[in-house]
TrEMBL record:
InterPro entries: SsgB (IPR006776), SsgB_sf (IPR038658). It holds the Pfam family SsgA. Keywords: Cell cycle, Cell division, Septation, Sporulation. One of its GO terms (biological process) is division septum assembly. GO terms for cellular component: cell septum. It is found in: Cell septum. Its main location: other. It comes from the Bacteria. Gene3D superfamilies: Sporulation-specific cell division protein SsgB (2.30.31.20). This is SsgA family sporulation/cell division regulator. Belongs to the SsgA family.
Length: 151
């Protein structure tokens, strides 16, 4: 039996998995009010361009955002992102943090995240799928045919 399967590039080994990162972050409501929020970051090596982030408050609904992995990484060092997801480094009471602003329509939310665990977790994702290799496993002929309705 052949190891060839359409749509899968031969010679590329399956990447290991990346355990999710759970952070307890704060949503900034105003200058003196903050709300604790659970944020779970997930990375799928099969779709390495984005990181899935699920935000939830105790007893409330969860909201899922997909943020570019490169946007998160750049946001640890300098302002990053355009449009609905923007990040920038900050310092809260001597702790390295990252501000994450998410916007949709006329709604926006600002979060404060601890930078060190996010940076460590992101670096692990780059060990699994190095920068510049995110699209290395794409079978472009198969993908083009599927987009054009050939399959």
């Amino acid at each position: 039996m052949s190891g060839y399967r359409p749509g899968v590039q031969a010679g590329r080994t399956a990447p290991r998995s990346c355990p999710p990162l759970v952070l307890h972050v704060e949503r900034v409501l105003d200058v003196s009010a903050r709300q604790p929020v659970r944020a779970e970051f997930g990375f799928d090596p099969g779709a390495p361009l984005a990181v899935r982030v699920e935000f939830g408050v105790q007893g409330g609904p969860c909201v899922v955002w997909r943020i570019g992995r490169d946007v998160l990484r750049q946001g640890l060092r300098s302002r990053s992102g355009l449009g609905d997801a923007q990040l920038w480094p900050s310092d809260v009471a001597g702790r390295a943090t990252v501000r994450l602003q998410l916007a949709s329509g006329d709604m926006a939310a600002l979060f404060v995240l601890p930078a060190p665990p996010l940076a460590d977790w992101l670096e692990h994702t780059y060990e699994l799928v190095p920068e510049g290799q995110e699209l290395a496993g794409v079978d472009w002929d198969d993908t083009t045919a599927a987009l054009l309705g050939g399959r």
